[in-house]
Amino acid sequence: MKFPDRSALGDMLGTGAIVGMGLFALFLLVAPSIIVLIISFDTRAFVSFPPQGFTFDWYLRVFEQRVLVEAMLNSLQVGITVTLLCIIMGVPTALVCVRGQFRGTTALSIFVLVPHMVPGIVLGVAVLFAAAAIGISPSIGLQSISITVFVLAVMVRTLMSRLQRMDPALEEAAANLGASPFQTLRTVTFPLLMPAILAGAVFTFIEGFDNISVAIFTHGFRDRPLPVELLALVQTTNTPLVAAVSGVQIVLAIIALIVVAASIGLEGVNE
Question: What subcellular compartments does it reside in (predicted)?
Answer without folding.
Answer: Cell inner membrane; Cell membrane
